[in-house]
Amino acid sequence: MGTLNNHNLVETNYKEILFEKRPCINTDGTPVKDLYNAWIILNNPKQFNSYTTAAVKEIILAFGEASNDRSVVAVVFTAVGDKAFCTGGNTKEYAEYYSGNPQEYSQYMRLFNDMVSAILKCEKPVICRVNGMRIGGGQEIGMACDFTIAQDMARFGQAGPKHGSAAIGGATDFLHLYVGIERAMMSLTLCEPWTAHQAYNFGMITDVVPALKVDGKFVANPLVVLDKQTDEFGKIVFGTMKTGEDLKKGKEVLASGTVDLSLLDEAVNKLIAKLLHTFPNCTSKTLSEVRKKKLEHWDKNKESSREWLALNMMSEAKAGFRAFNYGPKENREVDFIKLRQLLAEGHEWNEELHRIISPQFQNA
Q1: How is 218-274 classified by DSSP, letter by letter?
Q2: Same domain, 252 and 264
Q3: Which among 107, 178, 268, 344 is least buried, having the fewest CB atoms inside 10 angstroms?
């Protein structure tokens, strides 16, 4: 066979993320000769693996490279550490550069849109390996993937309306397809996170595995209710966070253990091993057909959403991201009641309003 054409746009020296080709593991646990999985790994643990502008560019190129690589069976999208898969865009960069600069944020959001589209058009199955919390834009790029396998101490959710944005980078397009309209509405507006067990029971993720080891043995997340299905009123509580004394005891168990993600890796490899034993082109076609349900909403909305998000950087996003970045650790949200009162009086969005509602100015 002659030399094969290289279809990558550019040759990339990844600096913001990690890109690795790891041997594809067969169903018997042995590596398969000359076949690999492409691991695209977010690498910003100090900021909970939030993505910077530079990282977004590399993620786009990494998915293109993985898609084009003939030896790659599947793509694993994950992050370093065990605290976070991704918490979305880098709020420091948002607050210090993009806030008040809608023309700049518009260009950034075009890159973000291209990142989501790069996941959705990848010609290989994409597995989101959730090593920790998946929040905000992290939830959105995670839902663009085909499968999700999570360690059971991960949490899932949105943050937009609490911090000056709306989850229109994919969540409003995708989430209802997984969990239905009303659950999606609750998550997207209230920004109350779901546990991994709730996400699994709601149909949002493929699998969930233990990650906490106590005395050398894996135990289920001790902070989550797993021993009963309903409360005394018949309301389902399975998978919700414990409260009161039960939560205190759970935290003691958590503190006594260590996090081990070996079962997570095992579950990811087992899923890919099953995909390995399918016709690659038939599998790719199946993926593209199912992805159409996401793309139907995504392609219809992504440009108008980008434009709205850019303009919002002059008002609520400017206030929200700066409050989060500059506010005291114990209070990183604006005074929502005062904001609503001022707007009801017809107050314009100006620096005076920002100073009144923002926590970083309260003791100035």
Answers
A1: EE--TTB--S-SB-TTS-B-TTSBP-HHHHHHHHHHHHHSEE--HHHHHHHHHHHHH
A2: no
A3: 344
